[in-house]
């Protein structure tokens, strides 16, 4: 494969990306970031692919940023290279990415899962932001995305104590969309991704973009953004096809136009 730290496989219209540094519990080093960015750029550009699944191993989605890589770095290197800012590029992927999390999703691993569009959790999933135990703090958006996902009380407790949260607590708190048995996780995620990939491609992008806008705007601007995109979809051939198909009681045949 062209990647060192991930496995990439196409399952029909779904790109399955598996983090693959088992010796380090999938800790995220510079090579993982480079591999992920390359694989996701290829996915986003490939018209045959409609949704991605990002997963890890049974034991760990990812146990964080690579502590051994960061340990010797000083402020000048971290700030000078804007360390971790590359992950922002990942969030610019226009097609959806589902995080399928089993085992540990800690620190940067939890943050990477939260950068995806939603998280499906195995019953074995454990989420946490334990950076404070290393005398640092989240650096890949965790303090912001966790707070938006679960609210201030739980986010503050999590970052200040570094404790882990299991799958059930994560589902109750709104961090994950669903819990599935660990043995079915990847299969379920690929099935969910296949459903999404079967929708009209422009509608998928528009739906993702408008939900994301909820985190960037106030309510009235967000609703206006939604409505303009909604209006825009009426300029697509697939809207005509989708509504005709409903009336004619048949599945839609999308052109992506
Ligand atoms: C580098 C890591 C690692 C990490 C685990 N390993 N996590 N290497 N960076 N984040 C390595 C271990 O050193 C060990 O290597 C191997 O993976 C197996 O891990 P063990 O600790 O032996 O496994 P276990 O006892 O099962 O414990 C699992 C664990 C623990 C609870 C997940 O590994 C752990 O606490 N990891 C660190 C979690 C963490 O602090 N994450 C946040 C990182 S900071 P060897 O060579 O000994 O076999 C972060 C920051 C983001 O993400 C933003 C700003 C700083």
UniProtKB/TrEMBL annotation:
Substrates-to-products reaction catalysed: a 4-saturated-(3S)-3-hydroxyacyl-CoA = a (3E)-enoyl-CoA + H2O; a (3S)-3-hydroxyacyl-CoA = a (2E)-enoyl-CoA + H2O
What general EC class does the enzyme of this chain belong to? lyase
Identify the Gene3D superfamilies for this entry: 2-enoyl-CoA Hydratase, Chain A, domain 1 (3.90.226.10), Lyase 2-enoyl-coa Hydratase, Chain A, domain 2 (1.10.12.10)
UniProt xrefs under InterPro entries: ClpP/crotonase-like_dom_sf (IPR029045), Enoyl-CoA_hyd/isom_CS (IPR018376), Enoyl-CoA_hydra/iso (IPR001753), Enoyl-CoA_hydra_C (IPR014748)
GO BP terms: fatty acid beta-oxidation
In its keyword annotation, does this UniProt entry include Lyase? yes
Quote the EC number: 4.2.1.17
Q: Which GO terms describe its molecular function?
A: enoyl-CoA hydratase activity
User: Keywords on this record?
Assistant: Fatty acid metabolism, Lipid metabolism, Lyase
**NCBIfam families assigned to the protein according to its UniProt record, in alphabetical order:** PRK05862.1 (NF004517)
Q: What is the similarity comment for this entry?
A: Belongs to the enoyl-CoA hydratase/isomerase family.
UniProt function note:
Could possibly oxidize fatty acids using specific components.
The name on file for this protein is enoyl-CoA hydratase
Origin species, per record, is: Sphingomonas aliaeris
Higher taxonomy: Bacteria, Pseudomonadati, Pseudomonadota, Alphaproteobacteria, Sphingomonadales
């Amino acid at each position: 494969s062209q990647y060192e730290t991930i496995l990439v496989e196409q399952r029909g219209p779904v790109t399955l990306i598996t983090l693959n540094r088992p010796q380090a519990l999938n800790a995220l080093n510079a090579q993982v970031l480079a591999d992920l960015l390359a694989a996701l750029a290829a996915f986003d550009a490939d018209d045959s692919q409609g949704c991605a699944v990002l997963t890890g191993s049974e034991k760990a989605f990812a146990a964080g940023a690579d502590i051994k890589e960061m340990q010797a770095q000083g402020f000048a290197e971290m700030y000078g290279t804007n360390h971790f800012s590359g992950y922002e590029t990942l969030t610019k992927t226009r097609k959806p990415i589902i995080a399928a999390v089993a085992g540990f999703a800690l620190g940067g691993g939890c943050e990477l899962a939260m950068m995806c569009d939603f998280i499906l959790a195995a019953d074995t999933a454990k989420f946490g932001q334990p950076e404070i135990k290393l005398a640092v703090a989240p650096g890949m958006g965790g303090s912001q995305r966790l707070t938006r996902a679960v609210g201030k009380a739980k986010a503050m407790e999590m970052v200040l104590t570094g404790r882990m949260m299991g799958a059930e607590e994560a589902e109750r708190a709104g961090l994950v969309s669903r819990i599935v048995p660990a043995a079915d996780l990847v299969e379920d995620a690929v099935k969910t991704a296949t459903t999404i990939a079967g929708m009209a491609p422009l509608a998928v992008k528009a739906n993702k973009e408008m939900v994301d806008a909820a985190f960037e705007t106030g309510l009235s601007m967000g609703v206006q953004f939604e409505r303009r995109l909604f209006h825009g979809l009426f300029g697509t051939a697939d809207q005509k096809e989708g509504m005709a198909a409903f009336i004619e009681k048949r599945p839609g045949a999308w052109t992506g136009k």
